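Standup notes
- DV: blocked on the single-chain target, sequence here:
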Amino acid sequence: MSAKSFVKQFSDNVARLPKRFGQKVVYTPSGGTAKTITGAFREKGDTIPIGGERITVTDPVLKVLSADLSGSSQESTFLIDGTTYKASEYIDDSRGLTILILRIPA
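- DV (later): unblocked, structure below
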């Protein structure tokens, strides 16, 4: 297997992780219709890659397929385990995943 094929296969497998190991999330884009997506949720924060560094955040983190977030904005909501969150940060990992730093709206 060539290095290019390996990288593509690895990226494809990473992009599938939230669907395989995640949980159901009700995502409502601002002004849009709610839909159920699957994401990997960490309520107590996570260590995430940002600009070649690994940063530890203490806010809730949700990792989802980027394709599932069409029309998303900071006013979009995510209903997880009965709690509604909004994203304060959207981080594209360039492999098909978006990492969301979440907050509970005031």
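- Follow-up: The mean pLDDT is 82.
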